[in-house]
Structures are given as C-alpha cells and as structure tokens.
Amino acid sequence: MGSLILLxxxxxSWADGATGDHERPLNARGQRDAGAVAAALLTRERATxxxxxxxxxxxxxxxxxxxxxAVDEACARFEAELYxxxxxxxxxxxxxxxxAGAHLLVIGHNPGIEELASRLAGHRLVxxxxxxxxxxRDATATAWRLVEQLVPRG
Length: 154
Known about the structure:
By secondary structure, the chain is α/β, with parallel strands linked by helices. About 30% of the residues lie in helices and about 20% in strands.
C-alpha cells in the first residue's frame, strides 16, 4: 500500500433526539466542512480504495467527496465493522485491504480513528470532525510516516 488517509466524518446533527446514533445525518456545518475536505483531497493523490463505516454521517461525508470528484464511488466499500470501531479493528480492515501501491482512504469515527492516527504518527493527534491524516510508507515499507494533518473548514 502506497498511502493511507484516515478521515473522521464531518460534523453530525444531534437535533433529533429520537434518531439513533448510527442514523445521525450531517448538520449544516458538517455539510460545509465535507465540501472543504473534498476540495483538499482534490489536490492530493486520488484514493484507489475507500473503506467507509455504514453510519449515515460517514456515508454523507463520502458522498460530498464523490460529488466533488475527489473519490470514485466505485472504489468504496462499506463495512459495518468500522462503525465506532477500535483502532485495532480499523487496522485489521486496512490490512485486509492492503494492495501494493494502493492509496487507501478510511472514513470512520472517534475514538478509533484518533487512536490509530496517533499510534501510526508516534505521538498524540487530535482528530476533530472533518480532520484527516495522510500517511506514506517509510523507506523500509514497514511503518507509516505522517505526511500531513488537515482540519478543513468550509
């Protein structure tokens, strides 16, 4: 695998107390921020594989990326196991999707995304909504190297 982007979904709405957590949609700020994430990704190497949680807010975040042309929807795979997954569970999904030279985007949730990003970076990272961290393989191709962390705001 050539590169890895870990993306926390955009800001979701808590307005409807009757809506279950899995079904919460993006709020207005989340809609704007997802557009900003898409714009940022347009200037980077395009993901060849996308793993996305099945939650509504992650799916809607992905749809913003697709509409902007930052990601090809055909590259996306939805995994129920990524919903509120631990760092170890996310890493298992990454390992299962490993493909030489592939550029993988994972759209998920905290605390798992933040824990995994921090572990791969070797220091504590904060992953607010719409935050992304991009990693490349180091020279030995055995470890990840943090290339950038972005918190796009629309």
